[in-house]
Design a protein that fits this description.
- The complex is a heterodimer of chains A (548) and B (189).
- Chain A is mainly alpha-helical.
- Helix content of chain A is 66%, strand content 1%.
- Chain A has a two-stranded antiparallel ribbon with strand order 1-2.
- By secondary structure, chain B is mainly α.
- Chain B has one domain: Cytochrome c oxidase, subunit III, four-helix bundle (Four Helix Bundle (Hemerythrin (Met), subunit A)).
- Helix content of chain B is 80%, strand content 0%.
- In chain B, helix 1 runs parallel beside helix 5, helix 2 packs antiparallel against helix 5 and helix 3 runs antiparallel to helix 4.
- The longest helix of chain B is centred in the N-terminal third of the chain and has 39 residues.
- In chain B, 39% of the residues are buried.
- The chains are: A mainly alpha (548), B mainly alpha (189).
- The complex binds protoporphyrin IX containing FE and copper (II) ion (CU).
Chain lengths: 548, 189
């Protein structure tokens, strides 16, 4: 606890923990991808590991399959990517980038981490409960989720803890940015990464309480017999449910998406911030239209709070309401396009160095683009009617989060590894990691668009075998699974690289000659970060002045 | 400690409190909007606590709740003013603590009346909303009371920083606002 009060230790703790959860989430995925590729075929060692109740004869039971899927989503979003992008990168680099000696409330930050750790362990441990872990999707829609086994209760408690955790973290980070900036570091001189982290923290702070309120309601429905989300006259297997009824399942969806749509921006904004840092440093360029980008990221964050019901266009809302959400959804793409355009134009005329960090950052741009563009048909009622709840949606958001945010996270690791360890990652292994990940990621996710367009529902235990029309696309399933395996193998290269380079890598202080403040101190930074508190006299990116 | 460092701390605490309160506002507003949406969308809504027998039992609790909360708010304000003038011991700094206990007791009493009248949380969505909303408020008040108690005890021989008391006062202000929203939305509508 005492050491966690140092923001660098805290950041590394977040990185390690969320890294482990990333592996967990990945392994869950490999298991259900097996089922999707070869439905009903036994996995040789599954019974030994998961027991007769989950995988008799090595065949994943539907009950277990749905646990794997629900927990894959929950683990990846709440326990892996957000803690990595916000907890790890934010805690470590924001104080450095603003020239601060640490976080404003170190103990809040540490408490936030411990709560996250506890919630994560609790949710992971729920697999051993009778009935297993939560199995109603990461979205936990009622009534299903209320009738589900006790793993769902643990999931809800975990979400409540994560909400408190992210509130503590967000307060600590934002207060640091407000009060501990170096002299001369005005708001419009902040590195873009800091802006993206500030907006992210604000979203977590303001949107997560809605999910917590929803979790309280659902918890009451599960343990106190209330009917917040249970309508009257509900019958399960022809037996009327012994509850008062009178509630509304759609209320959950509203509260859930009021958080969960901003949450997707929580996933993407830090990625944008990373890409901005990497592109400027490795292309030797100032951000194109920095002010516009700041405006866009603020607009994006604010606007993301009024689009949530585009996830609910088919729930029978009134045309007026539906039109409202379709229009706001179309409008939200404007700031996204501004951001991506600025990042692309920044490259123009730059002296690009094709480092691994840069390769990942460059790959982020078209991947994010594809994810964003495929969101537009989802945001319009007529096309949503066809695409909703199909693999197309899965393709859409994975392009944003997997080759999108994950690539940005990789870029961050290659870019900042020297800052944290004083040594560079090996570039040749990095290139293998990049090329391998780029090809296999696309091989996993691109076919999903086609399957979705053919109508394959996203939650099929048998991968959609009954959709005869979709057969030409379903043949992709085994290839997708093999690609996922290969993707995992290329991550091993990455892990080897990190372990090896941490000890043997080429020593480096500021290998990219970057000009932002985190590089103005030694690598790794000493306790208190800066021997002499820095004074800022100009913009963060000063690559054209030739002083690098 | 240099004044610069102190000023930064105060600034961070100020920002931190506002952010925390904003997050709490969103939490209570989400619970509240749940209640409003359920009530607006229901065709069979009845409001059990407005029915005669419970109403008579609950009314005193509503009144005492209000009094306790106002007391906590006003008293924290006095405490801050006294601390600013250097004489914090001159007023009863334990009042927020008592007030918080008072609110918790009032809630328990009201909840008991609801249960005895057969309007437990499982009886109807209306009753459930009452329990969750007022319960969440009581918990929030209890939390504020705990902090006030801790400070009063910690600083029994020294002075509580004025800016810290200002944050506490803001917190009680928020609790008051939440409570008045509940009173208006649940007891008058
Ligand atoms: C460019 C603007 C974007 C638009 C117009 C858009 C639109 C949509 C729409 C309409 C849906 C609902 C589909 C359905 O269920 O019928 C959706 C789902 C989703 N989007 Fe986006 N989106 C955009 C950007 C993003 C970003 C940046 C992310 C995350 C990094 C993201 C992550 C998700 C996720 C996770 C889901 C699926 C949630 C689920 O049902 O499990 N989207 N998007
Ligand atoms: Cu959305």
């Amino acid at each position: 606890m005492t050491r966690l009060t140092d923001h660098k230790t805290l950041g590394i703790a977040y990185a390690n923990t969320s890294g482990v959860f990333m592996v967990v989430g990945f392994l869950l995925m490999l298991l259900f991808r097996w089922q999707l590729a070869w439905p009903g075929q036994p996995i040789p060692i599954a019974t030994a590991i998961f027991g007769e109740t989950n995988a008799p004869g090595g065949i994943l039971l539907p009950e277990f399959y749905y646990q794997l899927v629900a927990m894959h989503g929950s683990v990846m979003i709440f326990l892996a990517v957000v803690p990595m992008a916000v907890g790890a990168l934010g805690s470590y680099f924001v104080p450095l980038q603003i020239g601060a000696p640490g976080l404003a409330f170190p103990r809040l930050g540490a408490a936030g981490y411990l709560l996250y750790l506890a919630a994560g362990l609790l949710m992971a441990a729920s697999f051993v409960l009778p009935g297993g872990a939560a199995n109603s999707g990461w979205t936990s829609y009622p009534p299903l989720a209320i009738l589900a086994s006790s793993g769902q209760t643990v999931w809800l408690v975990g979400i409540l803890m994560l909400g408190v955790s992210s509130m503590l973290g967000a307060i600590s980070l934002l207060a640091t940015i407000v009060a501990y900036r170096a002299p001369g570091l005005t708001l419009m001189r902040l590195p873009f990464f800091v802006w993206s982290q500030a907006m992210t923290a604000l979203l977590l702070l303001l949107a997560f309480p809605a999910l917590q309120a929803a979790a309280v309601f659902q918890l009451m429905d599960r343990v106190a017999g209330t009917s917040f989300f249970l309508p009257s006259g509900l019958a399960v297997s022809n037996t009327p449910l012994a509850v008062s009824g009178g509630g509304n399942p759609l209320l959950w969806q509203h509260l859930f998406w009021f958080l969960a749509h901003p949450e997707v921006y929580v996933l993407i904004l830090p990625a944008m911030g990373v890409v901005a840092e990497v592109i400027t440093a490795h292309a030797r360029r100032t951000l194109w239209r920095y002010g516009l980008m700041v405006g866009a990221v603020v607009a994006l964050g604010a606007w993301s709070m009024v689009v949530w019901a585009h996830h609910m266009l088919l729930t029978g809302m009134s045309t007026t309401l539906s039109s409202f959400f379709q229009i706001t959804t179309m409008a939200v793409s404007v700031p996204s396009v501004i951001l991506i355009t600025s990042l692309v134009v920044t490259l123009w005329g730059g002296a690009i160095r094709y480092t691994t960090a840069m390769c990942f950052a460059l790959a982020f741009l078209p991947m994010f683009g594809l994810g964003g563009v495929t969101g537009l048909p989802l945001g319009l009622g007529p096309s949503n009617l066809i695409l909703h709840d199909t693999y197309y949606v899965i393709g859409h958001f994975h392009y944003l989060v997997a080759p999108g945010t994950m690539f940005a996270l990789f870029a961050a690791v290659y870019h900042w590894f020297p800052k944290v360890t004083g040594r560079r990652l090996d570039e040749r292994l990095g290139l293998v990691h990049f090329l391998g990940s780029f090809v296999t990621m696309n091989a996993v996710f691109l076919p999903m668009f086609l399957m979705g367009i053919m109508g394959v529902n996203r939650r099929m235990y048998d991968a959609g075998l009954q959709y005869q029309l979709a057969e030409p696309t379903l043949v992709w399933n085994p290839h997708m699974t093999w690609s996922a395996v290969a993707l995992g193998v290329f991550q091993l290269v990455f892990v080897v690289n990190m372990v090896w380079s941490a000890k043997r890598g080429v020593p480096a202080e500021n290998p990219w000659q970057a000009t932002t403040l985190e590089w103005a101190t030694s690598s790794p930074p000493p306790a208190g970060n800066f021997a002499v508190p820095p004074v800022v006299t100009g913009a963060p990116y000063r690559y054209e002045e030739g002083q690098a | 400690m240099t004044p610069g460092v102190d000023a930064r701390r105060t600034r961070a605490a100020d920002a931190g409190t506002w952010l925390f309160l904003a997050s709490l506002v969103m939490f209570y507003a989400s619970l509240y909007s749940g209640y409003v949406l359920l009530r607006a969308g229901s065709e069979t809504w009845t409001t059990p606590w407005l029915a005669r027998p419970i109403l008579w039992k609950i009314q005193p609790f509503v009144v005492s709740n209000t009094l306790w909360l106002v007391l906590a708010f006003v008293n924290t304000r006095q405490w801050r003013l006294a601390a600013a003038s250097g004489a914090p011991r001159s007023i009863g700094v334990w009042l927020p603590t008592m007030a918080a206990s008072g609110v918790a007791l009032a809630w328990t009493g009201a909840a008991d009346a609801m249960l005895k009248a057969g309007s437990g949380p499982a009886a109807s969505v209306a009753a459930a909303s009452w329990f969750v909303l007022t319960g969440a408020l009581a918990l929030g008040v209890l939390g504020g009371g705990l902090v006030a108690t801790w400070w009063a005890w910690r600083d029994r021989r020294s002075e509580t920083p004025v800016h810290a008391l200002r944050q506490l006062q803001r917190y009680w202000g928020l609790m008051l606002v939440v409570w008045f929203s509940i009173v208006v939305g649940m007891y008058f509508v």
